[in-house]
Specification:
Number of helices: 3
Largest sheet: 2 strands, antiparallel
Order of helices and strands: HEHEEEH
Shape: elongated
Mean pLDDT: 88
Number of domains: 1
Structural class: alpha+beta
Number of strands: 4
């Protein structure tokens, strides 16, 4: 694996972390949404990450074994966790028993995810910068 491949892997992880952060932001923005276009309350979104396969030419030229081409968000799925039920008979979305279904978004869980994604993003930026520095130092060898 060359240094360019290492840079590409770091960039793919940075992009995947950016997408994950956007999903967290969407979840937090909709924490009180009881009515969506699809009907019912907002359902928390979760990203699904997959290994990005290497290009054929990269895999063929690599004699070191199976290498990853990085990471990507392959899809965004709905969290199957049940909705929260709150007794509020005056709410316009209350059912016949007076209960309102609230989104299955937990502020605490989203904040923990946000810290985790932020740390992963920072780690990938550090790896990218270290690889870039190695490339620059390699070019300066005389």
């Amino acid at each position: 694996m060359g240094l360019d491949q290492a840079l590409n892997i770091s960039v793919s992880a940075i992009n995947a972390n950016r997408t994950h952060m956007e999903i967290i932001s969407s979840n937090l923005a909709n924490i009180n949404t009881t009515r969506t276009v699809q009907g019912g309350p907002y359902r928390r979104k979760i990203p699904v990450f997959n290994e990005k396969p290497l290009e054929f030419s990269e895999a063929l030229s690599s004699a070191e074994g199976k290498l990853s081409g990085g990471i990507e968000v392959s899809e965004i799925v709905d969290d199957p966790t049940p909705f929260q039920k709150v007794f509020n008979p005056g709410h316009p979305d209350a059912d016949s028993d007076g209960f309102v279904s609230l989104p299955n978004v937990s502020m605490a869980k989203e904040m923990v995810d946000m810290v985790y994604v932020t740390k992963a993003y920072e780690a990938n930026i550090t790896a990218y910068n270290a690889t870039k520095k190695m490339e620059q130092e390699t070019l300066q060898i005389q």
